[in-house]
Amino acid sequence: MGREGILATTDAGQRFVARTGLAADLAALEDAGRPVRIGLVGVGEMGTDIVTQIALMKGLRITVIAVRDPGKRHAEHAFLIAGRDPAELQICESPAAIARAVEAGRTALTPNVEALIASDHVDVVIDATGKPEMGAVIGLGAIEAGKHVVMMNVEADVTIGAYLQQRAREVGVVYTVGAGDEPSSTMELIEFVTALGYPVIAAGKGKNNPLDVDATPDQYVEEATRRNMNPRMLVEFIDGSKTMVEMANIANATGLVPDVAGMHGPMATLENLHTILCPKEDGGILGRKGVVDYTIGKGVAPGVFVVAEMSHPRLRERMNDLKLGPGPYYTFYRPYHLTSLEVPLSAARAVLYGRVDMRALARPSAEVSALAKRDLRPGETLDAIGEYCYRAFTLEYEAARAVGAMPIGLIENGVVTQPIRKGELLTRANVRPLEGSKIVELRRRQDLIVHGAEA
Predict the structure, then answer these.
(1) Residues 241 and 386 sit within 8 Å (Cβ to Cβ)
(2) Closest Cα to residue 138, out of 205, 67, 70?
(3) pTM of the entire structure?
(4) For a disulfide at 174, which of 5, 142, 148, 342, Cβ 3.0-4.6 Å?
């Protein structure tokens, strides 16, 4: 498809050059009546953003939406917010019914994820559920059906991403973490500096919310309501769980590691990141180079950063001339990430170019487990991330294996088997995961691939 600019006209009649690159290719699909067909699973906060964003774009169409209970009318609400007519939605139970609805120009709404995955009217599936178990079901199901997958469910990816990536390559489809979240936004910077030959010293994000490791949903109902969020999701950000998951996601796509268990999380600002997240011998806090971390200092969130090293005096001279300092460490910074709003770009690139925006390496370098938020008793069933029982906690992968840390994606609905004190690690010795769960099965497959008989 063409890369040339297309002359467009504004409402005021002014002419400007637009639609180059991906925009031009999507416009060509629109003109040809062959849009990228998206199957969206979940229309909560993230899914509603995606419905709204795609309504503004050329060459993309949501053909099928899967929700657990269509009667709750979440999809209709999303359509109203996006400025679309909810009458365009048609409830469908089977792939055949989906086909009839889509061919009639409607968007199929189904409680049956398997029907969405099986539909011939879906090119790429977006998981916007945030539930690790659903990530396993959707991810593997779509791959086996020959569909591309855009994974917003980072909790699932840090648990089984290496397996899903391998299976996607075997099948010949794209499996990618979606653009827009901090991990993929950080990856853009990592790819930039490493392509230039600059070693990564540290990579990460500014934490968006004040850190409260003991946070629970009942404390944040008012704020969540005001921000139009689910209290559980808000707490997942506040108690640090999301940060732990996101930094492990970056680690597993790059080979970077947490410098210490749980990372440092210093009070570093944009101005002094490169003097704090650098080796101890150079005045920083790091015991080694090549780490993931985050900062709670002002001025970094909602951005992402890479601290890179330039050792060559000529390059440092040029950087100093450019008002970026004497080095040898420099902060490269992106001041924003657009979360769900960028995800449609990943769907488009997967279908048009076979491009993976972010992929897990074959062997993880970090593991996300959990620490108890309160004393836990044998026989208790564990709740979800962002609730009352535990918060996510990231360790270096081999260190996590040595202590038997339970992967975060296997914890929900697991059962406590030994007393766990507040602040203690959840492990395979004190927690039993839910048997029969798809993500437990896929993690076993991944462990066999990574470790062989040793697993």
Answers:
(1) yes
(2) 67
(3) 0.94
(4) 148
CA separation, residue 266 to residues 205, 277, 290, 293 (Å): 11, 8, 16, 9
Q: What radius of gyration do the chain's Cα atoms show?
A: 23
Distance between start and end Cα atoms, the chain: 47
Detail the DSSP E strand segments found in 171-242: 175-177, 200-206
The pLDDT assigned to 179 comes to: 96
Q: Could you give all domains of the chain from N- to C-terminal order, each with its CATH number?
A: 1-29 (no CATH), 35-180+343-353 (3.40.50.720), 194-337 (no CATH), 366-454 (3.90.1210.10)
Residue 253: which H helix or E strand, with range? helix 241-254
Query: Would you call 304 exposed, middle or buried from its count of C-beta atoms within 10 A (0-12, 13-18, 19+)?
Result: buried
243 neighbors 250 (Cβ within 8 angstroms): no
Q: CB–CB of 421/290 below 8 Å? A: no
Q: How many Å apart are CA 101 and CA 320, to the nearest integer?
A: 61
54's tokens: 């795609």
Pairing of strands 148-151, 175-177: parallel
DSSP label at residue 177: E
Around 214, how many Cα atoms within 13 Å sit in the side-chain half-sphere? 4
DSSP-derived letter for residue 171 is: H
Q: What is the pLDDT of residue 145?
A: 98
Nearest by Cα to 114 from 131, 93, 90: 93
Burial of 402 (0-12, 13-18, 19+ CB in 10 A): exposed
Distances (CA, A) of 234 to 113, 209, 210, 415, 422: 26, 9, 11, 25, 21
The length of the chain in residues reads: 455
Mapped onto helix, strand or coil, the DSSP state of residue 223 is helix
The shares of helix, strand and coil residues in the chain, as percent rounded to the nearest 5, are: 40, 20, 40
3-state class (DSSP) for residue 4: coil
pLDDT at position 20 is 83
Residues of the chain with pLDDT under 50: 1-6
CA-CA distance, 159 to 163, in Å (whole number)?
A: 9
Please identify which residue in the block is written with the tokens 């029907």. Answer: 115
* CA 149/CA 253 separation, integer angstroms: 17
Contact (Cβ atoms closer than 8 angstroms) between residue 38 and residue 126: yes
In sequence order, what DSSP letters do the residues of 367-420 get, joined into one string?
EEEEEESS-B-TTPBP--TTSSSEEEEEEEHHHHHHHTBPPGGGTTT-EE-S-B
User: What's the pLDDT tens digit per position in 147-176?
Assistant: 999 999 999 999 999 999 999 999 999 999
> pLDDT tens, 251-262?
999 999 999 999
